[in-house]
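Notes to self, N-acetyltransferase domain-containing protein:
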Amino acid sequence: MGESHPLLTFFMAAADGCFPPIDGRVTVLPPLAGGLECSVAFTGHAVVATALTSQAIHAQGPDGFGASLSPDFLRHLAGPKGWIDVTDATLTARGTGGPPRLAELADADDHPRVRHARKLRTNVKVYGDERGLITLADGLAGRRELSIELRNVQDGSQGHGRSLLADALSLVPEADPVFAAVSPGNARSLRAFLACGFTPIGSEVLVRPERDSQAR
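result:
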């Protein structure tokens, strides 16, 4: 994994089944690398990584029961013209290790999934075969992050998504945690991740803020 951020401690603890207290509070941390910020919701507790002060965040009235992901709060976090990503479910699983069951791809730089990964993550590597491709990278807060794209979306009905994910876990050392951000509305993808042993631990939104220089 790449350079870590204090938020990584929360993710790694959650992967071990240890979560923040269910107290409705919001923990404010420094911003992420690369000009990014985020709001992450666990059960009954939220974590916001931002350049804004703790006072400025709490003045907006977010809480650990969902308000930290409300549209109004996220727009305040991003500023009037900042970019707000979609809300994703945060999932985690353990690597299976052993001989890698997917080959690294050297000709996928122009693929939309790969371009998206490289905008938000570092050390992006791409693997795959005729079923589709996998990106494995240093993602949010420095966690090891995986994403998937099938070559034919209809292949999901044939179990290709699940088999590709299962093979992707061989790229991660045995018992090491790996994370994925999955849109809750992408039910087919979500079912595939769950079937391969991924567990939901929270939800998250990435933000690339653009604020007035006086904002604090």
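- Residues 90-201 form a domain with the Aminopeptidase fold (CATH 3.40.630.30).
- The radius of gyration is 17 Å.
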